[in-house]
Amino acid sequence: MSKKMKYSEEISNKLNNLLVKNYDAEKGYTNAMKNVENPNLKMFFKRRATERSQFAKELRTEILQYGELPEESGSLKGAAHRGWMNLKSTFTTNDEEAILEEAIRGEKTSLDEYKDVLKDRTLPPSIDAVLVKHKNAIQSAINTEKVQEELVS
């Protein structure tokens, strides 16, 4: 296997990992949206889900450009995370604050994963730009979620 092939496979594995996490986040936000009454929170979660869907599309495009195959759905870990979120919202009778806290926790994990991939200083500029854009949007979402949390509590 040539060095170039190995390299593009390595990059696509990292991107596929982020792609799966974005599928998971999108599903998590869609779920959260269904479990809250507050119209502002509903809208907020809907925007986050749409944003994550867009991130996934952009990552798929980058992976395909490398001649690799993008993942098609979320991870088992994500399914467990979504399940936990379902369980928690059921037990707390749609406790909006708890759902928001869980969303913030998930976003912080995403942020760390993006930062980790961005440590690779050999990423092609197009991928680097996409990842930085996503990372900044996630950071912004975390800040907004913290504001939302103040409003809910």
Automatic annotation (TrEMBL):
Pfam families tied to this protein: DUF2383 (PF09537)
Ranges where the DUF2383 domain occurs: 11-120
The record's section on SUPFAM superfamilies has:
Ferritin-like
- What highest taxon heads this organism's lineage? Bacteria
The protein here is known as: DUF2383 domain-containing protein
This chain's source organism reads: Corallibacter vietnamensis
